[in-house]
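Blinded run. Sample ID left blank on purpose so nobody reads anything into the name before looking at the predicted structure. Input follows.
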Amino acid sequence: MIYTQEQLHAIQEEQYGVLNATAEILQRYNIPYILAFGSMLGAVRHQGFIPWDDDIDIAIMRKDYDRFLAVAQEELGDAYCVQNTDTDKNCLNIGFTKIRKVGTVHESKGQKHLDRCKGVGIDVFPFDPMPEKRWKQVLLYHLVELIKLTSSAKLKYNYYAFRPVKKYATLVASALLTPISISRLGKIDTWLKTRTSDKSALVDWISYAAYKTGGRMQKEWFYDRIYVPFGNQNHPIIREYKNHLIRTFGEDFMTPPPVEKRVPHPIINLKIAGVPEIKDGKQVK
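Blinded prediction complete.
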């Protein structure tokens, strides 16, 4: 189900609010952060969201990410849910955290069967040192991908979209993985990512990218930041954003894709005050 423009705008406005509330805490605790991935591109190209996007990503260095999580829920209060594999047994956010707005719903089809916090939110990613040797990057990537695959099987992620044979295999895998908690799998993921040396000049969200292009950048770039407009406030991106965005999105990163590719993520349930609801993939009138 694709949103109407009214619904997409409402999602984006809610996410701006979550971002600003999160950024206030990060600034209070002197924790550097940056807009990452598509949000960095949106800030540079559109001074806010990529118009058809429904997602905000920020990144924090690992030591500060852990420091943020230690205070995030208390500081944010009951209006928000800090969701990761430690706080939610049905959470598929292996290697990152979502800050969700309580009282809203923004849910994809693959996760509709999971009893968890489902509010509109933003993604908070830890950046870890990246091995500089290619073979180590490839090995680390595949180890983490195995953990993500295992976690997805355990929680039957996207089960409803699978063909019968894959559905059966997923059910068997999920049953076999019953003794292993998602929290434990998440800790294995963190352990793998922190096996790299702090002396490395590269950092990345390893669960997402590893030896791929992804978010990899020079560590020194992360701390050399500039503030740019993003929605109704200014937020930081790296000063070397051009080099990074070329590497991530290509030389023509300032050129939007063809109209047929300007599509937000499909969702099955949406509930935000003031706009029509989507329930089980259908607009509620």
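Unblinding after everyone has recorded impressions. The mean pLDDT is 87.
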